[in-house]
Design brief:
Blueprint lengths: L2 E5 L9 H5 L5 E3 L12 E3 L10 H5 L5 E5 L1
Antiparallel strand pairs: 1-4, 2-3
Length: about 70
């Protein structure tokens, strides 16, 4: 099942837990940008590979990730 990952990037603190748990390795830290808190936010590369497992959202301690099944 395909999915879409949505981040509240301005509340991400860059802990990278979501990066570590993604089974298809599509979540990474955006080293090109800095959010309003001064952190590199998490983002998704290759959204079309998302399997909507929700691991990233379940792991995020600050609840900044939402996964939608398409």
């Amino acid at each position: 099942m395909a999915g879409k990952v949505i981040f509240d990037e301005n509340t991400c603190k860059g802990c990278e837990l979501c990066v570590r748990v993604c089974p298809v390795n599509i979540v990474h830290m955006d080293k090109e940008r800095i959010n309003i808190k001064g952190y590199h936010p998490a983002t998704v590369k290759e959204m079309d590979k998302c399997i909507a497992c929700g691991s990233c959202a379940k792991t995020c301690p600050d609840v900044v990730i939402r996964v939608e099944k398409l």
